[in-house]
Design goal:
The protein is mostly helical. The chain folds into two domains: 182 residues, no CATH class; 77 residues, no CATH class. 73% of the residues lie in helices and 0% in strands. Helix 7 crosses helix 8. The longest helix has 46 residues. 15% of the residues are buried.
Length: 260
């Protein structure tokens, strides 16, 4: 009896310590994400970074876009979502949101995604500063420094936060019509190649642009056909990488690593 009681106390103590460390790790992760966003906002306000190509030249690509400590919030919000789902399934497998809470979360998540995707649209309507501006035309995004800094620091975390909310509700079997649309098998070909598409499309765009022998006059119909061509070529390349790299190496990984 004494041994069993002592063993139970040790297990309870171990579980408490493990939960504390997990909670501490989650808190640290949230603080790092928030700190990175605040750093990006502060530096964007100071240096005039902008996500809009028509704003005056700045060091956005060099000092923000390419650096891991400014870009990692989007990725680690995904990690945080996975951790939250893991903890929910382990500790509270039967937990369900009320109908009202589910609707609020779904609407808020969809709203965040739409704001992140379409919110910057108005900033791209005017010409680039320094081009055709001698005639008194307005140039640049037209947003204030603070607004441009907010776009830099929060537009991507905003999108991922919305996507995380949608994912968690759908994973919990409460997505309803939204889950039915997102989980349709019609998306399967795109989902299998989307990450490879993301990896290869910059190379295809660069190859096309660098191969031009002269400047091209902008024309809506021309760029529509060029866009369609880029999409077809990029997805063809993505399909080759998926079938030739991802699938065989995924099978090797599953056979020699996941089996243990």
């Amino acid at each position: 009896m004494g041994y069993a009681a002592a063993r139970n106390r040790d297990l309870a103590s171990s579980n408490t310590g493990t939960r504390f460390l997990r909670g501490l790790w989650i808190v640290c992760l949230v603080l790092c994400i928030a700190g990175s966003c605040c750093y990006s906002f502060t530096m964007a306000s100071k240096n005039g970074w902008s996500i809009f190509n028509n704003d005056p030249d700045n060091d956005y690509m060099k000092d923000y876009y390419a650096l891991p400590w400014t870009r990692f919030p989007s990725y680690y919000l995904g990690v945080l979502t996975a951790v939250v789902w893991y903890e929910k399934e382990k500790e509270y497998p039967d937990f369900m949101l009320t109908r009202m809470t589910r609707n609020v979360v779904l609407c808020a998540a969809i709203g965040l995604v739409l704001v992140a995707v379409y919110g910057p649209y108005a900033g791209n309507l005017q010409v680039k500063c320094g081009v055709l501006t001698d005639d008194g035309l307005d140039c640049g995004s037209g947003y204030s420094v603070a607004a441009r800094a907010a776009f830099v620091a929060f537009v991507r975390p905003c999108f991922v936060t919305g996507l995380s909310g949608l994912s968690l509700v759908c994973f919990n079997g409460q997505g309803g019509v939204v889950a039915g649309i997102l989980e349709s098998k019609a998306w399967l070909p795109l989902s299998l190649t989307s990450y490879c598409f993301y990896l290869v499309h910059p190379a295809i765009l660069t190859l096309s642009l660098e191969s031009e022998s002269s400047m091209t006059t902008f024309n809506g119909m021309l760029w529509m056909f060029r866009f369609a061509g880029f999409v077809v070529v990029a997805f063809a390349a993505a399909a080759l990488f998926h079938t030739g790299v991802e699938v065989p190496f995924g099978k090797l990984q599953k056979r020699y690593f996941w089996s243990y």
